[in-house]
Design goal:
Bound molecules: zinc ion
Number of strands: 19
CATH architecture of the largest domain: Alpha-Beta Barrel
Number of helices: 13
Helix content: 25-40%
CATH topology of the largest domain: TIM Barrel
Shape: globular
Strand content: 15-25%
């Protein structure tokens, strides 16, 4: 059986290898415009030269010295931008209207979920998203460590992954169960359950040791009396978690939907807040003052309201939950909070990540700001600004070309015509 599998792999190798072109030669990309992320406007008539996986030059065509053996890729009608970044994904989940979250965690075997994740990673990259911060495997243990490795070594294709592994929740606060299930069965958990300062610290170190790039913690969840959203950890537990993570060189992301959960997260020193739907004006001001990034995940709300609350996109009035998330987004903008693009994709279809960009624009964020949120700003949230997020000499060649100009119409981000990661072309006209 094993020999048969090895034979199949060898047979597939040429196919896998041809999925991406070699990065060793120089490539000259010739779009109509280049949006570098250094300003707001696109530059007409600029070109980008890529060599050995990095951007080696960018500027007006006449100013770029092109090696004679460079491969030239014409991209008429397009704008070249840095590869897009989604700061909140779950490659091990698929849309809840296909399979509920409970059923995914309880009934889908981890190997099956990993195979699906490989497809999700490919769809994401092909959609022009060259980096993801993947915030928790939702019951699939440390599977994201292997997915990241498989992408890095070229076994599968996908975006750069920055992973949170299992994520950390307070005992009894997350799912599936114990609420809603009989009390004499052992359920798998959607994240690592801990109680007490020592156990919280141990969980951070375990996850760090297994390969987490970030620590993800839930500072509130729907576990209050009657299932209302309520805070989870004590301030002492949260402080210990953040300290242990920061000592190890890892930032912390907090799931927080309530104002109280956000407050506790901010006061504990976390680095980014996910969702934040119930955030007050004061709390967003505090985020601004403390330099905490905000990840709005507007598309997750639209999706769950569509699946479970009769919302019909393009027809219904926004539901109360959608209005709450939109109010949070506006408050964050008014307070000047650093907003990074993050969609919670996995709740909805992988590869549809650009929906979040359209939402931000629809709620009044100018198109160039939306692009910044998904490129240089997101790279700064990841502490990767010296590696990617802009089009500048020396940075990794993570680049996308879109038909039209996304800096004037963000809807252009739905249709990438060229996708390059690390100087390799994965999609071309
Ligand atoms: Zn999430």
């Amino acid at each position: 059986m094993r020999r048969w599998f090895a034979a199949l792999l060898i047979a597939l190798l040429p196919i896998l290898a041809s999925a991406a072109e070699p990065a060793s030669t120089s490539i000259l990309l010739v779009p109509d415009r280049v949006w570098t992320a250094d300003g707001d406007a696109s530059h007409v008539g600029w070109v980008v030269l890529v060599r050995d996986g990095r951007i080696s030059a960018v500027g007006p065509a006449a100013s770029v010295k092109v090696p004679t053996d460079a491969q030239r890729i014409e991209l008429p009608g397009t704008t070249l931008t840095p590869g897009l970044i989604d700061l909140h994904s779950h490659v091990l989940l698929h849309p809840y209207n296909e399979t509920s979250w409970n059923d995914q965690v309880l009934k889908e075997a981890v190997p099956y979920r990993v195979l699906e994740a490989a497809n999700h990673a490919r769809d994401t990259l092909m959609a022009g998203f060259t980096a993801l911060r993947d915030l928790g495997t939702e019951g699939a243990g440390y599977a994201d460590v292997s997915i990241r490795k498989a992408i890095d070594d070229g076994t599968i294709i996908g975006p750069r992954l920055f992973i949170a592994t299992r994520a950390i929740v307070a005992t009894g606060s997350y799912g599936p169960g114990p609420r809603g299930f009989r009390d004499d069965i052992d359920l798998p958990t959607g994240a690592q359950e801990v109680s007490g300062v020592d156990n919280v610290i141990a969980a951070v170190r375990e996850q760090a040791g297994h390969g987490a790039d970030w620590i993800k913690v839930y500072t509130d969840y729907r576990w209050g009396p009657g299932g209302v959203s309520q805070t989870t950890f004590t301030a002492a537990e949260l402080k210990a978690l953040v300290d242990a993570a920061h000592v190890s060189g890892r930032p912390v992301s907090a799931h927080a939907s309530t104002d109280a959960g956000m407050r506790m997260a901010i006061d504990a020193g976390i680095d980014s807040i996910e969702h934040g739907y119930g955030g007050s004006v004061d709390t967003f001001k505090r985020m601004h003052d403390r330099g905490v990034a905000y990840i709005p995940t507007l598309t997750a709300v639209e999706s769950t309201e569509t699946y479970f609350n009769h919302y019909v996109p393009g027809q219904s009035q926004p539901t109360p939950k959608m209005l709450e998330s939109q109010q949070a987004f506006r408050r964050a903008r008014e307070a000047g909070v650093r907003i990074g693009n993050g969609s919670d994709v996995g709740v909805f279809r992988h590869g549809d990540n650009a929906r979040e960009l359209l939402w931000m624009a629809k709620l009044g964020m100018p198109a160039p700001q939306v692009l910044h949120a998904a490129t240089d700003v997101a790279a700064r949230v990841l502490h990767q600004e010296s590696n990617f997020g802009r089009i500048a000499p020396g940075l990794r060649a993570d680049l996308v070309a879109f038909q039209g100009d996304p800096a004037s119409d963000i809807a252009a981000t739905i249709h990438p015509v060229l996708v390059m990661k690390d100087g390799r072309v994965y999609r071309r006209p």
